Amino acid sequence: MDKRIIYIMGVSGSGKTTIGELLAQKTGLPFFDADDFHSQANKEKMRSGHPLTDEDRKDWLQKIHTLTNEQIQNNGAIIACSALKEEYRQTLSNGIENILWVFLRGDYETIYRRLKNRTGHYMPSSLLQSQFDSLEIPVDAFTIDIEKQPADIVADIIQQLDKK
């Protein structure tokens, strides 16, 4: 496989980490979760029920872009990142070729149920609507419905990679 960055994107609770980790196992590419790059202040803001602003996200997006630059110089990587807006995706991919965007699409009710059952994460289910409000559906992404089983989603992504 050519050097490539595969971004797994979508709202919180859509399964980005699960899919990213499974895909990393199948491809041998390293996996990174963009949530790990949030500042403590951003995590506390979300934990307290306040959505992040574009300004809050600026440094976070820059850290992920730096990671992307580093990883494309190696063999590539899989990065789980919400990347909700087109301007965020532009920041993340600026100057980098060979990026595949994978959008995990799901409806509010399904994802809300997932978030209510999730433990140990700073993102409360009360912020889900703000994620959907910010989401700009990507036009240049491979879109997969989250109703599929994770193994089937990963198989679909690998099939898409084989086409490119």
- Structure classification: alpha/beta
Helical amount among residues, as a percent range? Answer: 40-55%
Q: Major β-sheet, in short?
A: 5 strands, parallel
Cα-atom Rg, whole angstroms? 15 Å
Q: Tell me the count of domains.
A: 1
CATH class type: Alpha Beta
Which regions contain 5 or more consecutive residues with pLDDT less than 50? none
Order of helices and strands: EHEHHEHEHHEH
Shape: globular
3D architecture notes:
- It is globular, with a radius of gyration of 15 Å.
- Strands 2-3-1-4-5 form a five-stranded parallel β-sheet, with helices on both faces.
- α1 packs across α7.
- It is of the alpha/beta class.
- It has a single domain (4-163), classed as P-loop containing nucleotide triphosphate hydrolases (Rossmann fold, 3-Layer(aba) Sandwich).
- It is 48% helix and 15% strand.
Summary, kept brief:
With 164 residues, this protein is α/β, with parallel strands linked by helices. 48% of the residues lie in helices and 15% in strands. It starts with a strand and ends with a helix.
Main traits of this protein?
15% strand; Rossmann fold; 7 helices
Please give the structural blueprint.
Elements: E1 4-9, H1 16-27, E2 31-33, H2 40-47, H3 54-73, E3 76-80, H4 86-93, E4 99-105, H5 108-117, H6 128-134, E5 142-145, H7 150-163
Parallel strand pairs: 1-3, 1-4, 2-3, 4-5
Helix pairs in contact: 1-7, 3-4
